User: Which sequence fits this backbone?
C-alpha cells in the first residue's frame, strides 16, 4: 500500500441535527488498498459521517454539512447515493437492502442487468424490447462471489437464505461494480457467525490487495485489530485518534472510545453509600430484541441504589430494560421486592411500581401529536387512575385538566423545558426537550424502580448536566431506585453506585465507579481473565449493608 496522494480525504466535516452537533471538524484520509477501521461508541457519529460521504438524502434534508470531501484529489459533491456509486463508492449498510423475491444473481446485478436483443422488434421499438441475458448475469454474479471467496448459490431466493448469506450477497453486489474503488462496510459481521466473520475478513484483505480502499466500521474491536491498517476513533462527533493499527490492542481502542469526562464532571463520584434491602432482581433473563439480544443476565439492585448498565452497542444492554418492561419477548424471572413481575406484560410491570424512560423517545416514549400536559400525565392516569375526577357522584370520571396543567408546569419549571406552554404539542419540541418530557412522564408515576435508557442521547451538554442532576435529586430526595443504561461510561461513573458491563448478551462484570477506565474497556472488549480485576468485580458484587 503506497503512501502517495490519498484516494479519499475528509476535511473538517461538521454536521448538526436541529442544533445538536453530531460531528465536529472530522479529518482523515483513506489510501488505495488501505483498510481503515472506524470505531466509536453508539452515537459517536460514525453512521452520520458515512451518510455524508455516501450522499444520503437525510443529510441534505437536515441542512447539509460543512467541510469538504476529496476523491483522487478532486473535491466532490454527492447529492445522492447514485452520485457516490458513479464515483466508485460502494456501501453495505447495517440494514439489508435486498429484494426477497429475487435470486442471489438478480440482487447482485440489480439495475446493471446484462441485456440481449430480443428480436427484430428491437429495430422498431429500440432497447426496451431487449431481454435479460441470464447466463451473462449469472456469470457476473458468480465472478463477484468467487472474488469474495464465499460459497453462495447464484440461483437461491433471498427469502430462503440464512442471514449470513444475505450479508455476503450485499457485499458481492458492491464489489461486482466495475468502478468500485472504495468500499464502506457498516457493522458487516454483526449478523455473521464466527466462521463466517473470518471468511469475510480474509475476503476484505484480498480486496485491499487489489487496490480497493475499505472503511470497516465495527464494534467487534478484536476484528478491527485483526484487519485494519489504520484506526480512527470517533468520540462525541470528534476524531480523537488516528493511528497505525500495528501494536494497537483491544484495550487501547476501548480506552480511547470511552476515556472522556462529562462536561462539568471531575470524574467518578467518590461518595460511598451503604444499602440494606434488595429492591429488584432478575435471574437468567433472556430477551429477543433485534440487535440487542440478551442471552443470560442475572443481577440484583439495592433499594435506593443507582445501578448502571453499560457496554458497547449491540451487546444487549438496551435489551435488558426493554425485555423487563415487556416491549420485547423475554424469559427468566424478575422480582420487585417480594413480588414476582410477569414478563411480556408492560401493564403489569407499570402497576407493580416500575417505570421506563425508553431510548426510543419518538417511537415509544411520546404521544407526538398530543400536548405536553397530556404526555406527562397519561401513563399515571392510565395505570394508577391519577389526574381524573369523579362526575355525578363517581358514576364516571373525566380528566382533571387543572391538575394536569399544574403537574406539567411543575416539570417544565423543574427540568427547564423550553416550550411555549403546557398545551404545546410534543412533536414541536427539540430532541433534548422531548427527552425531558419522557423523564417527567416517568417521574409522575412516582415509581419504586425507574429504568432510564440512554437519558442524555442526542441532547446538548447543558441539558445533559440538568438531566443527570435531576436523576440524582429524585434518587436522593425520594429514595427512587434507578437502573440507568447508557453508552456513555463517564456518565455512568459520575452518578452510579455500581456499574455492570454487558458483553455478548451477558454481564461481563460489575465494577465500582472509581475503577480505572481501562478496566471497563477490557470488560467491554470481552477480556475478563485478569485476577486483580476479578477480585475488584467480586467486591463490587457485594454492596455494603447499611
Assistant:
Amino acid at each position: 500500500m503506497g503512501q502517495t496522494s490519498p484516494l479519499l480525504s475528509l476535511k473538517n466535516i461538521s454536521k448538526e441535527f436541529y442544533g445538536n452537533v453530531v460531528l465536529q471538524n472530522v479529518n482523515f484520509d483513506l489510501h488505495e488498498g488501505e483498510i481503515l477501521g472506524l470505531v466509536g461508541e453508539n452515537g459517536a457519529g460514525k453512521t452520520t459521517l458515512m451518510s455524508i460521504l455516501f450522499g444520503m438524502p437525510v443529510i441534505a434534508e437536515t441542512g447539509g454539512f460543512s467541510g469538504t470531501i476529496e476523491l483522487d484529489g478532486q473535491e466532490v459533491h454527492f447529492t445522492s447515493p447514485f452520485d457516490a456509486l458513479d464515483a466508485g463508492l460502494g456501501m453495505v449498510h447495517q440494514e439489508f437492502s435486498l429484494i426477497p423475491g429475487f435470486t442471489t444473481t438478480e440482487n447482485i446485478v440489480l439495475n446493471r442487468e446484462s441485456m440481449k436483443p430480443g428480436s427484430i422488434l428491437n429495430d422498431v421499438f429500440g432497447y426496451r424490447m431487449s431481454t435479460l441475458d441470464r447466463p451473462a448475469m449469472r456469470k457476473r454474479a458468480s465472478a463477484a462471489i468467487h472474488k469474495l471467496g464465499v460459497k453462495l448459490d447464484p440461483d437461491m431466493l433471498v427469502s430462503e437464505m440464512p442471514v449470513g448469506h444475505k450479508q455476503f450477497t450485499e457485499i458481492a453486489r458492491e464489489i461486482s461494480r466495475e468502478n468500485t474503488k472504495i468500499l464502506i462496510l457498516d457493522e458487516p459481521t454483526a449478523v455473521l457467525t464466527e466462521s463466517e466473520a473470518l471468511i469475510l475478513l480474509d475476503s476484505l484483505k484480498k480486496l485491499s490487495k487489489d487496490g480497493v480502499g475499505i472503511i470497516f466500521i465495527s464494534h467487534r474491536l478484536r476484528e478491527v485489530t485483526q484487519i485494519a491498517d489504520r484506526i480512527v476513533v470517533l468520540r462525541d462527533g470528534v476524531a480523537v485518534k488516528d493511528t497505525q493499527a500495528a501494536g494497537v490492542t483491544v484495550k487501547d481502542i476501548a480506552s480511547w472510545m470511552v476515556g472522556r469526562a462529562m462536561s462539568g464532571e471531575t470524574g467518578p463520584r467518590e461518595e460511598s453509600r451503604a444499602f440494606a434491602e434488595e429492591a429488584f432482581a432478575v435471574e437468567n433473563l433472556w430477551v429477543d430484541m433485534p440487535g440487542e439480544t440478551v442471552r443470560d443476565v442475572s443481577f440484583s439492585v439495592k433499594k435506593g441504589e443507582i445501578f448502571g448498565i453499560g457496554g458497547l452497542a449491540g451487546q444487549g444492554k438496551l435489551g435488558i430494560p426493554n425485555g423487563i418492561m415487556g416491549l420485547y419477548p423475554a424469559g427468566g424471572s424478575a422480582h420487585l421486592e417480594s413480588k414476582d413481575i410477569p414478563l411480556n406484560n408492560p401493564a403489569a410491570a407499570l402497576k407493580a411500581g416500575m417505570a421506563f424512560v425508553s431510548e426510543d423517545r419518538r417511537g415509544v416514549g411520546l404521544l407526538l401529536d398530543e400536548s405536553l400536559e397530556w404526555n406527562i400525565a397519561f401513563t399515571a392516569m392510565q395505570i394508577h387512575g391519577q389526574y381524573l375526577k369523579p362526575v355525578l357522584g363517581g358514576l364516571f370520571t373525566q380528566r382533571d385538566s387543572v391538575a394536569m396543567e399544574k403537574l406539567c408546569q411543575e416539570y417544565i419549571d423543574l427540568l427547564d423545558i423550553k416550550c411555549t406552554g403546557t398545551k404545546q404539542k410534543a412533536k414541536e419540541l427539540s430532541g433534548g426537550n422531548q427527552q425531558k418530557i419522557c423523564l417527567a412522564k416517568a417521574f409522575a408515576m412516582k415509581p419504586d424502580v425507574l429504568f432510564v435508557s440512554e437519558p442524555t442521547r442526542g441532547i446538548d451538554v447543558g441539558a445533559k448536566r440538568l438531566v443527570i442532576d435531576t436523576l440524582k435529586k429524585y434518587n436522593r430526595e425520594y429514595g427512587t431506585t434507578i437502573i440507568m443504561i447508557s453508552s456513555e461510561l463517564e456518565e455512568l461513573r459520575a452518578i452510579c453506585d455500581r456499574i455492570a458491563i454487558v458483553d455478548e448478551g451477558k454481564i461481563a462484570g460489575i465494577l465500582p465507579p472509581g475503577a480505572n477506565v481501562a478496566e471497563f474497556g477490557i470488560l467491554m472488549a470481552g477480556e475478563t481473565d485478569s485476577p486483580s480485576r476479578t477480585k475488584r468485580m467480586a467486591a463490587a458484587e457485594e454492596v455494603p449493608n447499611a
Remarks:
- The chain is about 35% helix and 25% strand.
- The two ends are 62 Å apart (CA to CA).
- The first helix runs from residue 46 to 53.
